[in-house]
Amino acid sequence: MFLKVISYFLPWPLRRRALQLWFGYNIHPSAKIGFAWVFPHNLIMAANTRIDHFTVAIHLDKIEMEANSSIGRGNWITGFSAYTKSPHFKHQVGRKAELLLKEAANIVKNHHFDCTNTIEIGRFSTISGYNSQLLTHSIDLEENRQHSSPIFIGDYTFVGTNVVILGGASLPNYSVLGAKSLLNKAYTEEWKLYGGVPAKAISDISNRAKYFTRTEGFVY
Question: I want to staple 178 with a disulfide (CB 3.0 to 4.6 A). Which of 46, 195, 207, 215 is the partner?
Answer without folding.
Answer: 195
